[in-house]
Amino acid sequence: MLRLGIAACAMAAFAGDFTFTIGSPVAAQDFRAKVAAFVFRTQGCADPAKSQISATAEGLVKGVRRSVALKVEAMPKPGVYAVYQNWPADGHWVVNLKGTCNEANAGAIVPIGPKGFVRESSKFFPRPATNIEIEASLKALAQSENKGENK
Amino acid sequence: MLTRFTRHISRQLAAHLDGQLVQPQAQQAEMHLRECARCRTEREQVRRGMQIIEHLSLVEAPAALWPSIEAAIQENRSRQAPTVLLWRWAVAATLLLALAGAAYWRFAHPSGTRWEVVRLAGSPSGGGKPIRGAGRIGAGEWIETDATSRATVKVGEIGSVEIAPGTRVRVVTARPGEHRLALARGEIRAKISAPPKLFFVDTAAGTAVDLGCEYALSTDERGFGLLRVTKGWVSFQWGGMESLVPAGASCRTRPQSAPGIPYFEDAPESLKQALESFGFEKSGGDALGVILSESRVRDTLTLWHLLSRVDAADRGRVFDRIAALTPVPAGVSREQALKLDPQTLDRWREELAWTW
What we know:
The complex is a heterodimer. Chain A is of the alpha+beta class. Chain A has helices spanning 2-14, 131-146, and strands at residues 19-23, 38-43, 52-61, 64-70, 72-74, 80-83, 92-101, 104-113, 116-117, 123-125. Chain A has one domain (2-146). Chain A contains two helices and ten strands. Chain A is globular, with a radius of gyration of 15 Å. The N and C termini of chain B lie far apart (87 Å). Chain B has three domains: 2-108, no CATH class; 111-260, Sandwich (Jelly Rolls), CATH 2.60.120; 267-356. In chain B, 38% of the residues lie in helices and 28% in strands. The longest helix of chain B is centred in the N-terminal third of the chain and has 26 residues, at 83-108.
C-alpha cells in the first residue's frame, strides 16, 4: 500500500502536476529543520519562489474542533518547507497543507500521531482539502489512536 | 655632510620605503644609504617587517589586550613624532602587541575555553577532581563517571552532552570553530544546535561528526559500540569511509573496520541480523540476499550504503532492489550509480531521504 502511494506521488510529480511530497526533517538536508514536525516540498512548479503555501493544524481536543495557523518555514533549498509543532500536545491533530502555483492547486492532510507525522495515512489532492476530508481524517486518526495504532 | 655620515636615518626608513619623504630629505637619505652599511641593514629589516605585516591575516585579539594597545598609541601620540612615522610605528606596535597577546593566549589556553560541567547524580569527576555541584573543564582534561554517577557538559555555545554512568571522556578541543571530545568508553548523549561539522566525538573505531543533531553514542575501550540518532544527521567516519545516519537510525561501530551500515530501528529483525552478518563477518551472498528481500521503502537508507560496500559484481542487485522499491529520480543513471559516481550517489541519497 505504502509502495503504491509513493509510486502514485512520484508518477504525479513526473507528469508535471503541482503536488506536495512530505518527509521526515532529515529530508530537508538542513540542520535547522531537525526539530520540525515534518518537512514537505512542492513539485511541478516551475518557479517555487512564486508558489503560495499555507498550513493549519486541525485538531479535535476533548470532542471540540480547534484550528491553529502554522508558520511554514522555507528551507534554503527552493520549494522545501518545514512545519514546526505549535499545536497542543493533547487531542488528535492533522496538518492541512494548501498551495498554489500559477493556476495550479495542491492540498494535503498529514495526520500527526504520537511518534510524529503518519506518512502512510497522509492524503494528497490536486486542490485544497475540503472540510469533510479534514473531518474524516481527524475521525480516522482518533479511531486508530484509540485502537492503539500509530504507536 | 654631517647628516649624511654621522646621523643615521633609522627614524626615516619607514617613510622612505613608503615614498613619503619629500625632497631634499629623500635625496639625502639615498646618499646616506649608499655609504652607510648599518642603515642599509636596518632598511632591509624594516622592509621585511613591512612585507610580513602586509601578508598577515586578521586575527581577533582578546578583549583584555585593548587597554595596553590604547596606552601604546597614547604614548606615541604624546611624543609628537612625525605623522607618517608615528602611524607606521603605531600600527607595528599594535600588531606586535596583538601577536604577542594572541601567542600568550594560545599558550596559556592550548585549545580554547573551558566548558561548564554539572553533576547530575553520584560523584562524577572532572580534571581529576570531584564535581560536587558545577565545575569547569578544558582541553586535555578527563570527565569520569562511575556506575552511579552522571554529569552534563555545556559544549561552548552550541549544545550539551550528557555523560552516562560508567563513562570516561576527554575534552580534546574547545574552540568556537571546533568542539571535540574523545570517548574512551561508556555513553554520551549529545544535543547540538549548530551548523554541521562543529562538534566531533572520537572513539577507537572512528569519529562521529555532527551534522546538526541529537544522538547517543556508546563504545567500549576497543571501539565496539553503537550510534543512535534521534534528530538530524550524524556522519560516522573511519579511514575515508563514512556512514550517514539520520534520525531514527543506528549504526554499529567496530575497530579497524568500516563504519557499520546504518539501519532504521523499526527495520525487520531479519534484516538487522543479516546486516550484522554482512557488515562484520562478510558471510557473503546469503546475508545480502536476505537484506535485499527484507528491505522496505524506508530501508533504502541501508541499501544506498550497501551499494558502495558490496563487491562490484553485487552492485547491480542492490541498484535494482532500490529501483524496485522507489522510482529512480532524474539525474541518476544505473551506469553512473554502479561506477559509484559521487554526484550521482549524492543526488540519489537526497531523493531517497524523502522516504526516510
